[in-house]
Design brief:
The chain is mostly beta strands. It has a domain of about 70 residues. The chain is built from one helix and five strands; from the N terminus they run βββββα. A five-stranded antiparallel sheet has the order 1-2-3-4-5, with helices on one face. A hairpin with a 4-residue loop joins strand 1 and strand 2. The mean pLDDT is about 85.
């Protein structure tokens, strides 16, 4: 089995609006970026392709409180719109606790 070449961040203009300060990249053929928040929440961006990306925030207990599956541009836009943990409008309810929650 042949592994795909690692994704070059410079080849993804969709990430230009994302302030890369505080973001870390995991090594591998799929682009995975994560950002740790002071209260132990974590934002994750997983990029399979420009047309297939996943964004998610988990709380300090590891439960997802926000997620978005869409194009890379849509996920980055949605991720930028999610208020920081601790902000009054930040998502806090675990998604599994309320399956009808609007996730985007």
């Amino acid at each position: 089995m042949t592994m795909a070449a690692a994704v070059d961040l410079d080849e993804l203009p969709e990430l230009a609006n994302l302030d890369m300060t505080g973001w870390h990249r995991l090594p591998g053929p799929v682009l995975i970026l994560y950002r740790l928040w002071p209260e132990d929440s974590v934002d994750t961006l997983l990029v399979h392709s420009r047309n297939n990306a996943h964004g998610e925030r988990v709380n300090g207990e590891g439960a997802p409180v926000w997620r978005c599956d869409a194009t890379l541009a849509a996920v980055v836009s949605a991720l930028l719109a999610v208020p920081a943990p601790g902000h009054p409008d930040a998502p806090v309810t675990p998604l599994d606790a309320n399956p009808n929650i609007d996730q985007m």
